[in-house]
Amino acid sequence: MSLATAAKFAKRELRGGIKGFRIFLACLALGVAAIAAVGSVRSGIEAGLAREGAAILGGDAELDFTYRFATADERAWMDTTATRVSEIADFRSMAVVGDERALTQIKAIDDAYPLVGTVGLMPEMPLDVALADYGAVMERVLSDRLGLSVGDTFALGTQDFTLRAVLTREPDGAASGFSLGPRTIVYTEALKDAQLLTSGSLFETKYRLKLEEGADLKALEAAAKAQFENTGMRWTDARNGAPGVAQFVNRLGAFLVLVGLSGLAVGGVGVSAAVRSYLSDKTGVIATLRTLGAERSTIFQTYFIQIGVLSLLGIAIGVALGALVPAALAPLIEARLPIPSQIGIYPAPLAEAALYGLLTAFVFTLWPLARAENVRAATLFRDGVDTSSALPALKYIFFTGLGLAALIGLAGFFSGTWRLTLWTAGGIAGALLLLSVTAVIIRWTSRRGAAVSKGRPALRWALASISGPREGAASVVLSLGLGLSVLAAVGQIDGNLRGAITTNLPDVAPSYFFVDIQRDQMPGYTKRLESDPAVSRVDSAPMLRGVITEINDTPAREYSGEHWVIQGDRAVTYAERPSENTKITEGAWWDEGYVGPPQISFAAEEAEEMGLKLNDTLTINVLGRDITGTITSFRDVDFSTAEMGFVLTMNPAALQGAPHTFISTVYAEEEAEAQILRDLATAYPNITAIRVRDAINRVADVLAGLAAATSYGAAATLITGFLVLIGAAAAGTKARTYEAAVLKTLGASRGRILRSFALRAALLGFAAGAVALAAGIAGGWAVSRFVMETDFNVIWPNAIAIIAGGVIATLLAGLAFAWAPLAARPAQVLRAKE
Asked: Region 491-507: what's the mean pLDDT?
């Protein structure tokens, strides 16, 4: 028989509608829709960033310097290259009103700001009017915290300012990245007597350029780097106006797509179960066709075409939902996003989701479809018992593996995170294997449990039912277990991240970080703290900022790739001798009083990641001056304790004469913190205090948004698991009906039969939840340790909720489909089996 004949048979089968395939379609559509929706939102954000690149950046291009303003030569190059230039100084300080103090991120500007976009103020007024005569604008959260109203006065350093308006929109806010304090904007000129922008203070300057229409940004970037890169200059342009935001969006989107693929895997279990159940009902039809001479290939092609058409329908529904739902909710999504976006319908993410759906349908339907061709004509005389082999032909196993490899390959290619993709694939495969083994163990244990559970008929019936050859124990454990595994892993990761930020750190972290302490202020600063019995510890160190430009006379990025240490400037300190807590892992510290060529002590873990070894040379640009030193020791640096940690420490003579300030950490009793801040801020107005608890809360807020996004993805996976569970419960209705009919005939009451059904569901749910908990904890540990690089502790409330959720879900699904079997009349059911 030809393919045309198989197509004719498939067409006739499809006339029966989608009965039996509703769960199939729902699982496939939901998984595809989740991936398509994530991709659509990500594409909308990327389109917004590309369209508004200049507005986000605040100009067509930006040159960034650390701890200094541009030199005359650098400024001359900018003025020659651009039609307009705007100079911005960005730094942290304290806004003071009486005894009230709050951390703020100050943007000191010139009269050319903003080159692109407009600043939103309330009440509405031109920015130059608001900032004239020592005026200032600040975000409402800061003015409310300080109790300021428009017209009130506050201090920055030693200079008083008048609040003229509340800042409602900062056109280049997204390019500023994460900050620990709300924004305040003033004129740079107004800060000349504030003692905040002094030599060695922690600040960075940004020079925004407005270029001629059609300017070649790539060529200008190359020219600027060739001329100024060794001075510590960093270049950004409108092609990627907010690189940090874009990178975060890409990584979050990739992670959510992988969570979506986990949902598709759960849906794939449901798809496979639905096809298996459907073909089981078609066993008689298949056997009849074999009796009439149908070849195995015809049988396979018939149902492959039918399932393929239904798969395309499910994928089309999922793609439509993934495109239309974000578009319909565009105003709401765009309003919630802190960056420009252009939510709409984008073909690329929809095509990506469709490919995932096609491959998932292929991988999870090929195996049961291949088994269908092994049904024999003799099956007609054996009451429909499937005697086909558990394994299909070798060629189908090969194509299943090929489809799985293609699915993983596409996921890695589209997400751009091969490591996370392989971890996810391995985690899903491991969870499926564990759940499959668990299903076999459950059936084996139930068979033996039923034999020894005399005197407890409801339990015995439940165990006997689970161990039956036609029972859906495997489908229930696989579908619900995999969905709960993903949710358990996300719950453990989320709980550990929140715990690391909000619980673990405050127990060991200092009360304050003080920065911008001038050298001549250190004696008085130290005296105030050492005389306070509420202060248990004070650590202080000089601090500069430097950019590692070369490693062993090779550009740093060529030597160590994109390691975070060489991305931007890093804190640099000097020390005559190592502190008491310093652990040298390799090499030796320089001698006290050493004045020879610069020597460097480097963080051991980061050095290993960068491929550094003893006697390697580093060139560090500090305030425009190149300093080349030799690595003479490695030491342990633990950044997780919130203590001062410097990747790079040099001998004092190497940095002699470089202007700098000091940084200090203070450990004090919580009730003494406010008085410490008041005394130090009064005596030294230029000092900036960062309260560690406030910083932790700020980071926790950011993590809350990330956790919410991943939780939504996990919820979609869990919903798919519930759909599969419902499908498994529905598919078992016939078996439950026959079981209830037999038990009624033997004198069992409806109540006892219902209890056996409930016990069966609860036992399967408990097994699925317990295995999901183990898989979720293992997955959470792996991600926390190797991806997030944080400590891991089991979050038991989340863990217990997973097991409880498994029991409740299977119990509800089982009971929901128990009423029809209980209501069926035994005579009608048993007569049909004769």
From this structure: 61
Among 485, 353, 501, CA closest to 34 = 353
User: Minimal CA–CA distance to 517: which of 531, 505, 509, 527?
Assistant: 527
Residues 6+ apart with CB under 8 A from 371: 279, 386, 388, 389, 390, 392
Residue 56 DSSP code: H
Lookup result for tokens 């595994």: 485
Q: How many other CB atoms are there within 10 angstroms of residue 258's CB atom? A: 23
In angstroms, the first-to-last Cα distance of the chain is 35
* pLDDT level of residue 384 (50, 70, 90 thresholds): very low
Amino acid at 784: S
Angle, CA 188 vertex, CA 187 and CA 192 arms, to 5°: 120
In this prediction, residue 243 carries a pLDDT of 52
Residues in the chain: 834
pTM beyond 0.85: the answer is no
**Interval 509-550: pLDDT, tens:** 677 888 888 888 899 999 999 888 888 888 888 988 888 888
Short-list 782, 477, 774, 539, CA closest to 666: 539
Residue found by looking up tokens 């975000």 in the block: 139
- Tell me if 630 sits within 8 A of 598, measured CB to CB: yes
Express each pLDDT in 193-234 by its tens digit.
Answer: 888 887 667 788 899 888 888 788 788 888 887 777 667 677
568: left (phi over 0), alpha (psi -120 to 50) or beta: left
Q: Which amino acid is at 313?
A: L
